[in-house]
DNA sequence: GCGTAATATACCTAGTTAGTTATATGGTAA
DNA sequence: TTACCATATAACTAACTAGGTATATTACGC
């Protein structure tokens, strides 16, 4: 965000943030922290439906957040790079800081 | 994203990413890089409708991405902290890197 | 008080999307 | 070939959302 982004650039950045803006997809990324996984493993790990998992994976892949590798019948997905987790970590830290601030502001009920 | 986030935590993180996943809101944040601004200034700077700007500001504020300060008739908004821009910068860097990679892969047409 | 300016909200419409079920695609094994 | 398995996609519904217009709220000056 160096200032004065073109509409096309804004749209691309927004697309990627939007891909992260869904609990189901964040959960899948969280699961993928443990390493590369086949779709069927993700289905088991998340408890989500097969078609739903597949669709979310397409969205994550289109956003460049996960990498894809085919091997026989199976398709293995993994985190595209460490920035993906960095983004989530920053966002989580923000939330922790704001939770702390809220507690300071409203008290913990002691 | 330290692994095994609760559904409530996932929802809160997703809410914040989703707030960033809209070109109009990214544009507003980009404009706010220049400093605190009243709503009317944002309307002028972005060319968006008044109700629309106001609604997007509520979303950004609910996500903790902008700070709000009232002064008389005016309400001034500003970036909540530098992490907001950091997130965008990381995402932009990702896009630049991937654009570079695409150019290397497909050629620049020289 | 009244009028007016700045912002927020209600309401509506059109477009989008998550989740589902059913089906298609691609690859393997017999 | 046929049967089967893993994944992707199509089609549908319900819920959500961006953007607009109209209205409400809030604070100021008179």
Overall description:
2 copies of one chain form a homodimer. The first copy, chain A, is an alpha+beta fold and 110 residues long. Helix content of chain A is 64%, strand content 13%. A 3-stranded antiparallel beta sheet of chain A has the order 1-3-2. The longest helix of chain A is centred in the last third of the chain and has 25 residues. Chain A binds a DNA duplex (30 and 30 nucleotides) through helix 4.
Cα-to-Cα separation, first versus last residue of chain A: 42 Å
Largest inter-chain interface? A-B, 42 and 42 residues
Mind describing the biggest β-sheet of chain A? Answer: 3 strands, antiparallel
What is the overall silhouette of chain A?
Answer: globular
Keywords, separated by commas or semicolons:
homodimer, 110 residues, alpha+beta, 3 strands, 64% helix, globular, DNA-binding
Short structural summary:
The first copy, chain A, is an alpha+beta fold and 110 residues long. Chain A has helices spanning 7-20, 23-32, 39-46, 50-62, 82-106; strands spanning 37-38, 66-71, 74-79. The first copy, chain A, binds a DNA duplex (30 and 30 nucleotides) through helix 4.
Helix and strand arrangement:
The structure is a homodimer of 110-residue chains.
Chain A: H1 7-20, H2 23-32, E1 37-38, H3 39-46, H4 50-62, E2 66-71, E3 74-79, H5 82-106
Antiparallel strand pairs in A: 1-3, 2-3
The structure holds a DNA duplex (30 and 30 nucleotides).
